Amino acid sequence: MSDHATPAVRFLGRVDYPDTWRAMRHFTEQRGPETADELWILEHPPVFTLGLNGKPEHVLAPGDIPVIPVDRGGQVTYHGPGQLVVYVLLDVRRRKLGIRRLVRILEQAVVGLAAEHGITAAPRADAPGVYVDGAKLAALGLRVRRGASYHGLSLNVDMDLEPFRRINPCGYAGMPVTQLRDLGVSCMVREAADRLLPHLLALLSDNGASLPAVARGGG
Questions:
Q1: DSSP-assigned states of every residue in 88-103
Q2: How far apart are CA 125 and CA 107, in angstroms?
Q3: Is it the case that residue 205 has pLDDT exceeding 70?
Q4: With b meaning 16 or more CB within 10 Å and e meaning fewer, what string describes 30-69?
Q5: 206: which DSSP letter?
Q6: Catalytically annotated residue among 42, 86, 109, 170
Q7: Tell me: the pLDDT tens digits for 115-156?
Q8: Topology (CATH) of 8-205
Q9: Which among 54, 98, 78 is positioned nearest to 209, based on CA atoms?
């Protein structure tokens, strides 16, 4: 198998978070040297997830939305209907792909999608993710185990943003959050996935060698 073989893309629809998290971990634990990489494209019902560095005090008022501590990096975030989630199940050791480079690939895929619609989006050095005029459009959180990555990227497409006000997104009090709909892009989650995937697959095909020079902003 080529180090840079194109991952299989699986469209899972709207699926329960705990079941999907268990499936990601099982896939990663069971994979071998020849296991093909996969990208899982999906939505989740409403859920807050608290990363390994997450502080419970950043969950302000969850109400009836469950809070699940998980094994990715980062702080607290929200997943819900109308948000595109892309889980990247990659053999990063086989790809010779460092975690920072993978983060940049995920960020740049979103930047590329936004640019298609005339939106200037950028990463931020102090808070992983992608931002437009200081508002968070996409969040990132990864875990690498046994030389393979899981978890990934969430992109706000057309959703109820109110639950983000119940947390300090990614540990930042008062951080504004935005979505494609509010930026003038009208599409459903599957359509957003179809627009994002060419950017992501192109960047993965050369392990991010075509990434632009680092120009981080969005503060």
A1: EE--HHHHT--HHHHH
A2: 12
A3: yes
A4: ebeeeeebbbbbbbbebbbbbbeebeeebbeebeebeeee
A5: T
A6: 170
A7: 999 999 999 887 789 999 999 999 999 999 999 999 999 999
A8: BirA Bifunctional Protein; domain 2 (3.30.930)
A9: 98
Sheet with 76-79, strands from edge to edge, namely: 67-69, 47-50, 76-79
Give bridge partners of residue 138 from the DSSP assignment. Answer: 130, 155
Give CA–CA dist 119/125, Å, rounded: 20
The pLDDT mean for the chain works out to 92
Judge whether 170 counts as a catalytic residue: yes
> Quick one: DSSP state of residue 17?
H
Please tell me the total number of residues recorded for the chain in this structure.
219
**Tokens standing for 165?**
């006000």
pLDDT, tens only, 74-130: 889 999 999 999 999 999 999 999 999 999 999 999 999 999 999 999 998 877 899
**Per-position b or e across 163-198, b if 16+ CB within 10 A of its CB:** bbebbbbbbeeebebbbbeebebebebeebbebbbe
Q: Would you state the pLDDT for residue 84?
A: 98
Q: What is the DSSP string of 98-156?
A: -HHHHHHHHHHHHHHHHHHTT---B--TTS-SEEETTEEEEEEEEEEETTEEEEEEEEE
Predicted model pTM: 0.93
What is the C-alpha separation between 117 and 141, in angstroms, rounded? Answer: 25
Q: 36: which 2 tokens? A: 């093909």
Under a CB-based contact definition with an 8 Å cutoff, are residues 91 and 108 in contact? no
